[in-house]
Design a protein that fits this description.
The protein is mostly beta strands. The chain has two helices and 33 strands. Helix content is about 5%, strand content about 45%. A hairpin with a 4-residue loop joins strand 28 and strand 29. The longest helix is centred in the N-terminal third of the chain and has 18 residues.
Length: about 425
């Protein structure tokens, strides 16, 4: 009887654990908010030498990981057989770190601001910045030349592709595309087309155009999906500002003007009926309330902080009325992780030493990746900065977003990637 009870307990325990194993299938996670329902129950993994499952080379680029099942997808830069530097989508086995397949994409004929651009600490090379998305047996990639690819998750072979610049009269932007594809329902959504087709939705399985709309100029910010006042929508952060779009039709729901200078790269953040956005280069941040009157929606300003609260490309997280994230501009290796009260814009606490890294949320714990390769777990509380653990895990420059998925934390830099077992 004791043995039977033990077997039953073990089966129940494994089943319960499986409920908490969650894929991170696209750049900002399943819900477009950089949050996971997978629980990070302990920070002991940061102190254990045996928590590192593997470390592998990921040459160049600022692409993050998407993880589905036992596959992790990212973009690197490598020479092809003709000696041309190419953007390459790769699939790694999360158990071993071994490369399962590689798919050659755009030729790298650009300098995207990642080389020796400007300040000390901004070295580390150049490369692709868009992050693949995955669902089921497919992977979608939006490369620097605005080619949307659908690849087989099994072997990386092309299923379909669309040359947005050619097929939809698009025009690339300074430093070329960095936005990731958004998988929303049965659609793969991107932006970058010309007049009347700035916003594009394709059937994710066939590549057939579902709809096109808009007359906007794209930025480096990835579109996000959210539900506001019960209305599902995709929010694009364009050079004109924020635009809310109905995902099934492409119809405009609302818009909000916001300044643009040089580059906008951090995505908007939704908190109920509030939308926050920010950009560097002297632009600053803003908070806007979305209202609904009958079938019509509109936006109004709550506050605007010119040349303050910069999110250069590090999209913050909303949690219980506060924003948590890296707020700085070109403070490489030094910029702070901050907690900011959303409705007032008041800084509740600030901790230097992160630079323009990125952060995600599990429960009430922030998982932060500094731009120098340190992973930190920090309590998501406005009362004070409380660090629960911190460890240097990779070398190279980290302008990517860490991922918690299926009991593992994955992070990468311009040199290498690491997988840490958290359980």
């Amino acid at each position: 009887m004791k043995r039977q009870a033990l077997v039953a307990f073990t089966a129940a325990f494994c089943w319960a654990c499986s409920l908490h194993a969650v894929d991170w299938n696209q750049y900002h996670g399943i819900q477009s908010d950089k949050k996971t329902t997978e629980a990070l129950t302990s920070t002991a993994f940061l102190g254990r030498a045996d928590s590192k499952k593997w470390k592998v080379s990921t040459p160049l680029g600022f692409s993050s990981f998407s993880v589905v099942g036992n596959r992790a997808y990212t973009m690197v830069a490598e020479e092809d057989e003709d000696g041309l530097m190419r953007e390459v989508c790769i699939a790694l086995d999360t158990d071993s770190g071994k490369r399962v397949w590689s798919s050659l994409l755009a030729v790298m004929d650009y300098k995207s601001g990642g080389g020796n651009a400007g300040a000390p600490g901004n070295n580390g090379g150049d490369g692709p910045r868009s992050t693949p998305a995955s669902y089921g047996d497919k992977v979608w990639v939006y490369d620097s030349d605005m080619n949307l690819h659908c690849l087989s998750a099994k072997d990386g072979k092309s299923i379909w592709s669309v040359k947005v610049l050619k097929a939809h009269d698009g025009k690339n932007i300074k430093w070329k595309n960095a936005s990731a594809p958004l998988i929303e329902g049965k659609l793969a959504i991107v932006y970058g087309g010309g007049k009347g087709q700035s916003f594009l939705a394709f059937d994710r399985d066939t590549g057939k155009l579902a709809w096109k709309s808009g007359d906007e100029t794209a930025t480096h910010a990835t579109p996000i999906a959210a539900t506001i006042h019960g209305v599902r929508q995709v929010i694009f952060f364009c050079t004109s500002g924020l635009v809310g779009i109905a995902p099934k039709t492409g119809d405009e729901l609302w818009r909000q003007k916001f300044p643009f200078k040089v580059s906008t790269a951090a995505a908007p953040v939704v908190a109920g009926d509030l939308v926050y956005c920010s950009a560097g280069y002297g632009v600053g941040s803003g908070l806007y309330r979305i209202s609904k009157n009958g079938s019509k929606m509109s936006s109004s300003e709550v506050w605007r902080k010119s040349n303050e609260m910069f999110n250069h490309w590090s999209t913050p997280i909303h949690h219980n009325g506060h924003l948590y994230g890296m707020f700085s501009f070109k403070k490489y290796g030094k910029g702070p992780l901050q907690c900011i009260e959303l409705e007032s814009g008041e800084v509740k606490w600030s901790q230097d030493g992160y630079g323009p890294g990125n952060v995600i949320l599990s429960g009430n714990k922030l998982i932060a990746l500094s731009d120098t390769g340190e992973v930190a777990v920090v309590e998501a509380s406005p009362s004070k900065y409380k660090e629960l653990g911190r460890k240097k895990v990779i070398s190279g420059k980290c302008w990517s977003t860490p991922v918690l998925s299926n009991g593992m934390v994955l992070a990468r830099s311009t040199k290498e990637a690491v997988c840490l077992q958290v359980e």
